[in-house]
Amino acid sequence: MRKALMAAVAACGLLAASSAVQAQEKLKIGVMATLSGALTSGGEDGVRGLQLAAKQANNKIAGKDIEFIIAATDASPDSALRAARKLVEQDKVQIVIGPLSGSEGIAMRDYSKTVPNLVMVNGSSGALETTFINPSPNFFRFNSDGAQWMAGLGEYVLKDKGYKKLAVIAEDYSFPYTQVFGFALGYCKAGGQIAQRQWVPLGTKDFGSVIANIPDDVDAVFLGLGGGDAVNFLNQYSQTGGKAKFVGGSIMVDQTVLSSKGAAKRLLVGTPSSSGVADAWDDPKWVAFVKAYQDAFPADKRFASPSLFAANYYNAFNAVAKAMDKIGGDISDGGAKLRAELAKTELDAPNGRIKLDDNRHAIATTFITEVTELPNGELTNKFVKTVPDVPQTLGLSAEAFKAVGLPSRTNPDCKP
């Protein structure tokens, strides 16, 4: 009887040891996504992009099962900080993918410096300052920033569309500042004029006074809005019967808006824009990515085509997976080998080749597009052309780029 008891204890010990090994083999990845507020639809699609990448990897990285721990944010820096602290201090993750929004990214740059063993790979946030000003050694961004997404659009709008004078309506935070900055550098240098800039709080419900204040003597209006704000503006502008032509910021014409309900979105047909993706690009890798996205989720639980957010979170996961495979999944050194490997990781991504600069920031392709309506009534971004290998300094020397100053409500100036 004693022998039987000892055998049972030993068996239990083996089972416990086996369970401990299995627990150690599971790789916990923290995920920050904007799942409330104006940018909720983007956060949800970012998670879909992440889930698709994991599915294609059989839910493993370097032979380890993956466990995603998702922490929701609302696009504010404070919510991002709370989410990150929860993931690191309570859930004990060493790898975080996120955040989504511009000012969240700036906050995470600073937070990551206080947790040197953390490996943070950006989700989709696109403020310039995040990686250009005092970059963090453990923050990696495999997507372009908002200024890079505008590369070539200003020149196209002026020369091909003939829009010589614009007004701007955009949200009042770091990412739209960065988008207008990137657009204005090309547009103003080519001879365009920005006559007015109206900045609205993220989450604006009533655009009445903003719409009433649009100048009559502009050729088009640059819209730097996203998510719920973009939809609210279009609905309210439609009710006024306005006939303005538009130029779209990257997430103004993203599938998060083009797939929204209602007819007001058709005001965007013909709108030129630029981004890190193009819905209707015919490159085989992009076409395969779109099909995989559509097949992975029911039609009523996704967009017609993956959004910019889905693509960016998808690429972030694949960057982590590729680097982890190279180091055999070993992050027992506080992630030092992983950080070193990520810094030299290059992606042959669905939206083009991506490599990092010395600030661990993406050099990638920008796509010039125009919104068009398909025979089935869906809206898509028609591919116009690419601007390949766009650096963060937009082709300027580091010194010349710094001399322009940082994006703001008024910088760069754009007068005749």
What attributes characterize this protein structure?
Rossmann fold; globular; alpha/beta
Sheet-strand content, in percent, reads 15-25%
CATH class of the largest domain: Alpha Beta
How many β-strands, per DSSP?
15
- Low-confidence segments, ≥5 residues, pLDDT <50? 1-23
| Helicity range | 25-40%
Order of helices and strands: HEHEEHEHEHEHEHEHEHEHEHHHEEEEH
Shape-level CATH architecture of the largest domain:
3-Layer(aba) Sandwich
Average pLDDT for all residues: 94
- Largest sheet geometry: 6 strands, mixed
Distance between the amino and carboxyl termini:
96 Å
Task: Name the CATH superfamily assignment of the largest domain.
Answer: Response regulator
Number of helices: 14
Helices and strands, with pairings:
Elements: H1 2-25, E1 27-34, H2 40-56, E2 60-61, E3 64-73, H3 77-90, E4 95-97, H4 102-113, E5 119-121, H5 129-132, E6 139-140, H6 153-159, E7 165-171, H7 174-189, E8 193-200, H8 208-212, E9 220-224, H9 227-240, E10 246-248, H10 255-258, E11 272-275, H11 284-296, H12 308-326, H13 336-343, E12 347-349, E13 352-356, E14 362-373, E15 379-390, H14 398-404
Helix pairs in contact: 2-12, 3-4, 6-7, 12-13
Could you explain how this protein is built, in words?
By secondary structure, the chain is of the alpha/beta class. It has two domains: 26-144 and 284-364, Rossmann fold, CATH 3.40.50; 148-282 and 366-404, Rossmann fold. The chain is built from 14 helices and 15 strands. The chain has helices at 2-25, 40-56, 77-90, 102-113, 129-132, 153-159, 174-189, 208-212, 227-240, 255-258, 284-296, 308-326, 336-343, 398-404, and strands spanning 27-34, 60-61, 64-73, 95-97, 119-121, 139-140, 165-171, 193-200, 220-224, 246-248, 272-275, 347-349, 352-356, 362-373, 379-390. A six-stranded mixed beta sheet has the order 2-3-1-4-5-6. A hairpin with a 2-residue loop joins strand 2 and strand 3. The longest helix has 24 residues, at 2-25. Residues 1-23 have low confidence and may be disordered.
